[in-house]
Amino acid sequence: MGRLRILIVDDEEDLAFTMAERLILRGFRCEAMTNGIDALKALSEEHFDVLVLDVKMPGIDGLQMMTEIRQTHPDLPVILITGHGSAADAERGMRAGAFDYIMKPIDIERVIQMIHASTGAKKDEKP
């Protein structure tokens, strides 16, 4: 399997870019964005293997994005990120077709496990 391409979308800029950097160090190809509009544009122009998406964002939130993404990218694995108190939103996202969700604060090893699981990649394969 080639190097997986991951799109991270979170309005917390530090979190999004730090997560991307940490995944890049582990061999993934990553882009980080801080809003849903830019992310939807990127998804329409480029191929990504996995989307890591914050549920709560200003403007277009993660649940609204899920609706649009499922229309244009029905098979794109989506891993939702949610803060404390928004587990119900994450559950709604799961019903909308998300692969899984992870609570903040983010455990990067757990994110990597979810990426591998969502794409069928084995742990010993290169990302």
Structural features:
single chain; 127 residues; alpha/beta; Rossmann fold; five-stranded parallel β-sheet; 5 helices; 43% helix; 19% strand; globular
Task: Kindly describe this structure.
The protein has a single domain, classed as Rossmann fold (3-Layer(aba) Sandwich), CATH 3.40.50.2300. By secondary structure, the chain is an alpha/beta fold. The mean pLDDT is 90. It is globular. The protein has a five-stranded parallel beta sheet with strand order 2-1-3-4-5, sandwiched between helices. Helix content is 43%, strand content 19%. α2 packs parallel to α3.
Topology:
Layout: E1 5-9, H1 13-25, E2 29-33, H2 36-45, E3 50-54, H3 62-72, E4 78-82, H4 87-95, E5 100-103, H5 108-119
Parallel strand pairs: 1-2, 1-3, 3-4, 4-5
Helix pairs in contact: 2-3
Q: How many distinct folded domains?
A: 1
- The SS-based structural class is alpha/beta
CATH class: Alpha Beta
Number of helices: 5
Strand order of the largest sheet: 2-1-3-4-5
Largest sheet: 5 strands, parallel
Average residue-wise pLDDT = 90
Assigned CATH superfamily? Response regulator
- Total strand count, please? 5
In sequence order, what are the helices and strands, one letter per element? EHEHEHEHEH
**What would you say the CATH architecture is?**
3-Layer(aba) Sandwich
Estimated radius of gyration: 13 Å
State the shape. globular
Q: Give the low-confidence spans.
A: none
Compute the separation of the termini in Å: 7 Å
Into which percent range does the helicity of residues fall?
40-55%
Strand content: 15-25%
Per CATH, what is the topology? Rossmann fold
